[in-house]
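sry for the spam today, last one i promise. struct tokens for design, 249 residues
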């Protein structure tokens, strides 16, 4: 199986990054730049995004297996899996699988899609389904998800990766993936889980994450940021990398 991976730096532990819906491995670049002096950092293009072809039969379990196979190919041991938004839910999926969780020491979720069902107004979902991959829709999506103005290079990347996304993967997540609850599997998670999210996130409310994780994984540590939107790795890479460093320490 071929994986589309970007790798930076060296040192232990290894950090493995899973991007958000409409992102790509490159979306993590600015966070990873802060970490590579000390850690091996690996970012994966998830199937249907970036350069990776879509899965023939997408499901949360299939994405979890794909990520697990990438971890094995990378020879990860005691790695830290960092997932943003969609990548957060997929990271949780990996953590519910004991044979894959054994490769990890902890999971860090950044503004994650919740383990239950991700909220999205029907009108917004239809816009995303009907207007992809138009540039105008990409701009609207990026601007509505952020609280801070992105520098030109980050904004350009967010628009580019939005438009790169394969239609089958795009539709699967909006119609099925984000609505698939894995709440009944979270009891199997034994490794530490941390959620880093913003109380000003316009996409996934912090209160929902506090409720879901409080009910399903009460041992989860929640770190609340402010004045940042949903695209934390692009809006505040320095702040996010600092939190990740503290969690490793």
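last one done:
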């Amino acid at each position: 199986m071929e994986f589309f991976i970007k790798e930076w730096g060296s040192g232990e532990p290894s950090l493995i990054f899973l991007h958000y819906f409409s992102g790509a491995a490159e979306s993590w670049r600015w966070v990873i730049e802060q970490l590579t002096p000390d850690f091996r950092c690996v970012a994966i293009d998830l199937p249907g995004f970036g350069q990776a072809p879509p899965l023939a039969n997408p499901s949360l379990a299939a994405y979890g297996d794909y990520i697990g196979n990438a971890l094995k190919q990378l020879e990860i041991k005691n790695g830290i899996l960092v997932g943003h938004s969609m990548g957060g839910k997929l990271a949780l999926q990996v953590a519910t699988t004991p044979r894959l969780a054994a490769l990890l020491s902890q999971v860090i979720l950044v503004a994650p899609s919740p383990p239950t069902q991700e909220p999205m107004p029907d009108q917004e979902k239809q816009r995303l389904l009907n207007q992809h991959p138009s540039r105008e829709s990409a701009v609207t999506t990026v601007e509505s998800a952020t609280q801070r103005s992105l520098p030109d290079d980050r904004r350009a990347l967010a628009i580019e990766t939005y438009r790169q996304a394969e239609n089958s993967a795009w539709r699967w997540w909006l119609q099925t993936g984000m609505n698939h609850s894995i709440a009944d599997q979270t009891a199997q998670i034994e490794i530490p889980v941390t959620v880093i999210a913003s109380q000003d996130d316009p996409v996934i409310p912090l209160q929902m994450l506090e409720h879901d994780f409080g009910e399903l994984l009460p041992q989860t540590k929640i770190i609340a940021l402010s004045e940042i939107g949903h695209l934390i790795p692009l809006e505040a890479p320095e702040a996010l990398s600092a939190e990740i460093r503290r969690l490793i320490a």
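The first helix runs from residue 29 to 32. ok im logging off now
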